[in-house]
């Protein structure tokens, strides 16, 4: 069960946990004050556009119109990057189609929203009782008991280990919602390279014994970090923070990152 403190900031998501652990001020801007982002990061815009094309492709819709419309909304530089990224969409779709033909795929989930309630049972994404939630870019269920969840990443490729917690939280969501699933594969679709990278297969028991307690511990740690109100924690991530133009500490950190070695994943910045 989550503490009262953790429930106070619910519903949590993987990116919300990371924001809380990274910078309390960012967390408060985004999730407590719901301050509209004063800055738009080009990579986030491109990422959103690529996601919408992938979503349409996987749902079997025509993507030409979406590509054209999305491209019109981007700057010339971003448009080039977007069009380059969408080059790989066709081959990704073909690989998924081949996988579906080869395996007995019963469910194809695209942009699928799921939630977990405070007693850790499955609920919908937007309910009041939801304490944790997430969106599967792609989910596949086959042979009744097997599942794969894939997250699209359109930014710069980084180590899979740095997004371990995000992927683990997807496994928890999957096991909560699909009681027949016994084994799960967690994957990242690196859009720029057109590659799929997988973790090793994990069992239901492993998710329950390891991933779920880690998820709860992360939520509690993030809740503790933000509970005293907004406090800046400047670092290299500030350079990609959409609130840097209003953050009091940004002028001290913009050009001199505190932690250059950070490769931590964060959807907040990475789209
Ligand atoms: S600019 Fe840096 S310190 Fe300020 S809110 Fe963003 S991440 Fe936090």
Principal-axis shape equals globular
CATH architecture field: Alpha-Beta Complex
Mean pLDDT: 90
DSSP strand content: 15-25%
Measured between the Cα atoms of the first and last residue, the distance is 30 Å
Helicity range: 40-55%
Text of the CATH class = Alpha Beta
| Helical stretch tally | 11
List the secondary-structure elements in sequence, H or E: HHHHHHHEEEEHEEEHHH
Set down the secondary structure blueprint.
Blueprint: H1 4-8, H2 14-22, H3 24-32, H4 42-58, H5 64-72, H6 76-86, H7 89-102, E1 105-117, E2 122-123, E3 130-142, E4 146-153, H8 164-177, E5 183-190, E6 195-198, E7 202-203, H9 204-226, H10 250-253, H11 267-270
Parallel strand pairs: 4-5
Antiparallel strand pairs: 1-2, 1-3, 3-4, 5-6, 5-7
Bound molecules: iron/sulfur cluster.
Iron/sulfur cluster binds next to helix 3.
Structural features, described:
The two termini are 30 Å apart. This protein is globular. The longest helix is centred in the C-terminal third of the chain and has 23 residues, at 204-226. The protein has helices at 4-8, 14-22, 24-32, 42-58, 64-72, 76-86, 89-102, 164-177, 204-226, 250-253, 267-270, and strands spanning 105-117, 122-123, 130-142, 146-153, 183-190, 195-198, 202-203. With 271 residues, it is an alpha+beta fold. Strands 1, 2, 3, 4, 5, 6 and 7 form a seven-stranded mixed β-sheet that branches. α2 crosses α3, α4 (42-58) runs parallel beside α7 (89-102) and α8 (164-177) packs across α9 (204-226). The chain has a single domain (4-39, 88-258), classed as Lambda Exonuclease, Chain A (Alpha-Beta Complex). Iron/sulfur cluster binds at residues 23, 25-26, 232-234, 237-238, 241, 243-244, 247, 249-250.
